[in-house]
Amino acid sequence: MTVNPKADLFVPASLSLADVYTSGDVIYQIPDYQRPYSWVDEQVEQLWEDLLEAYENNKEDENLDSNYFLGSLIVVQKGKIEDVVDGQQRLTTLMILLCVIRQTFPKLNKTVDVNEFPSVVKIGKIKSCIADTNDLTRLRLQPDVSQSSNVQELIFDDEIDFTTYEKPSKKQVETDAKYRYINTAVICRNHLIELGEEKSGEFVNYLMNKVKMIKITCFDESFAIKLFQVLNDRGMDLSAADIIKSYLLSTVGPDKHKHDTFMYDWRLCEEWVKELDGDDLTDLFTYYEYYLLGSNPKKSLVDELKVLFKGKDSNVVLRDFKEFVSCYRLIYNSTDKLINSFWYLPWGSYWATMLIAAEHIKYPEKEELQLSLRNFFFLNYIAGVTLNSLKQTLFNILIGIKNKDSVDSLKAIMEDKLNAMNTKQQVLSKLKGEVYYEGWLKAVLAVIEYYQTDEDEVSFISLDYKSLNVEHVYPQTPAEGSKWLKMFPEGGQYLNTLGNLTLLSGTKNKAAQNFPFNEKIFIYQGLDKNGKKTITKQGQVTVYQISQKIVNDYVANTYKKQWNEEAVQDRFNWLCEQIGEIFDLDVETILY
Length: 592
Prior knowledge:
The protein is of the alpha/beta class. Helices cover 55% and strands 8% of the residues. The protein starts with 9 loop residues before the first strand and ends in a 9-residue tail after the last helix.
């Protein structure tokens, strides 16, 4: 393609992933105004699951996901080098994946006949995507010279042995980009090993040939940044729900009564959904799609529902959907502590669909089912199990709910999965370690708080950092010569463990800081650090019972008014026992 930069502000092109990395013998450069590589488990796992799902769909039916769109890539052309304005996180993650493939399966697709399968991707093609013929790597990082060196030494070098890499801790991943590269490499390698070399070869063929990006080549940096901002602004495009509405209305026909009935029900659904913070009609149709299918969707939401609704009376369809939304409203507005627990979980499309389904079909053992589901989801959440590993089991449970299978049979499905994944042992291992940086910590502590009362109805505890924080009793940075170092010399080794942590409101957490233990106790009670009432705080003990327990032990002189090794270990045991009782987990082996 002949391009005149003066005539063309930008040139778009639809490229396969192989062409993204090799077309024009390009070298991509991350400019210095870009943020460092930031993807962690959630984003990397989601990308992998999306790509693997598309590959499996296409393998099952070649018409499905025959061109999987991965998004846009905006670059500024500077000769052979192109600055990346948008798409650097995906580009970097996929480059790491290619490097791991090169090292893990050096004979990838070696036995596949290129004459019979011309699009086969062999290891030479992978290498050409990683570096050009002069061994210049096709991705350069500019923000930090040391970071660029990290990528070269940790990822790009031919001699790297990824088998020696261990998964970094949450703290390492959050604080150092170097560990994010390692973390992504470990995740990619684990998934490739799980697939095996032959299936990985097929997956790579799909990845490099059928996964597409729209590459937009610009010739002026300021224009490229403006284009990025415009493309990322939220427009007023039609939602999936709008298209579904149009499709259903098209089959209603000229009957005015049917049309008016349909519009009344639709508007009622819209009004109901407006009450649901964070959900819209498209979300509810997604839950409804999962409910109707009982399996992983193979097409877009609109296309799947068109097939499911074809030949059916639109008013009957909408009436059932309205009842489905009504069931969700019941769940959403519930103040039951069991239902409240679910809102802290990931995978909302799955657990929400199950809870709605149980309401919708009037499942006879609903409460016991809800309890089992809550425990199953939380144990997998704490253990770090990925959605891709759970999907089939979740759909099996959903089908069982729809069929009104006994709760014992559904619990058996859950228990079999927990055993197969060794999930409970992984949970115990997590609880025993440094939990402060774990994403599930606040959620688990909030659930423990709910169960400090015998009442079923409780006020929802928001995990927003302005409302709630995790407090270190032994402080993170005790001052040199402080009372803490004398009272609890071993405190550092317990700093981020479960026994040294509690919940406080955002303001009290800030107030507690690194004060001595006796002054912290005053603050936990709503006093100032000298134990005096303030104008706004009338001496009330913190509203969180799991924190009040520390105050109560202090007042009762349980540990001689000290925070020491015995106090931390006892608190660890108490919190673990609470977790065991709530989530039906035997914690005896990890107690002190």
